Amino acid sequence: MAGAAARGTGCVTLRGAQIRDLLDAKHNVLFDCDGVIWNGETAVTGAPEVVSLLKQRGKRVFFVTNNCTRPRENYVQKFSRLGFTDVAEEEIFSSAYCSAAYLRDVARLQGKVYVIGCGGVMKELRDAGVPVAEEEDAEPGASIYNCPLDPDVKAVLVGYDENFTFMKLAKACCYLRSPECLFLATDPDPWHPLRGGRVTPGSGSLTAALETASSRKATVIGKPSRFMFECISSQFGLDPARSLMIGDRLETDVLFGSNCGLTTVLTLTGVSTLEEALAYRDGQEPQQKDCVPDYVMESVADFLQALEE
């Protein structure tokens, strides 16, 4: 296993010459989005410039996000809206896009997928040519006892769903009674921060409910699963040893990088804190060691000085 855990170190604060040396050694830079290059509808200061300068230096830049709420074409619009001038759709790998690719290319699904999720997941599935079981408007008095179930459903996919209901959970349980029915989750994120200090339950919370109800475990597509990196690598031929993962969440972004053999950087503009990273590094739990970042920086803007020289 590459990275901090293998060396028993980690959490090195990146400064000056270290940043230059690190960038010189890497050809591919993978960014998480939420909490790393933007927060909501505000770009992290300096992030658009960092992305442009990395590309001018000949680096290949990719964006890997567990956020499944929008299709890739909408991400392109958001990048543009926030001042990122040169981000292409093929550089964006969301858990929605990768879930669709998995069902089409890996599972080679012969049938329909029942989706607990939002429009972003639906759009990526349809763009990939994966048949989706349409959700019928419930008849008055309908319940799980008498609602119709689609006999062609061969997979259940769980993602972020603001309209999650008991009926959706119950239907998914019924489909998963068949051992031949695949059980997938876009990502394991338990919650997401909102403005004003509030939070919203993430895909991982909904997946946990269905895992409990069905007595089955979902195959996770998004970070920290290796599949997102394999999805990028199959298209662009990435060498893990020359790749850098920059994220804000230890249990997803950093663990993803560790699982894939990438050098990892924690940026402190999002969810996880330096104190949490140090606690993992200095703790006694072996499974936490893979969540320890190789490096820590306050913000991706710390790359600017090295890139502008």
Automatic annotation (TrEMBL):
Divalent metal ions. Mg(2+) is the most effective. Its cofactor is Mg(2+). Keywords: Hydrolase, Magnesium, Metal-binding. Substrate binds at residues 192, 223. GO terms for molecular function: metal ion binding; phosphatase activity. The active site is at 32 (nucleophile), 34 (proton donor). It holds the Pfam family Hydrolase_6. Mg(2+) binds at residues 32, 34, 248. GO terms for cellular component: cytosol. It comes from the Eukaryota. Belongs to the HAD-like hydrolase superfamily. This is Pyridoxal (pyridoxine, vitamin B6) phosphatase. The lineage of its organism: Eukaryota, Metazoa, Chordata, Craniata, Vertebrata.
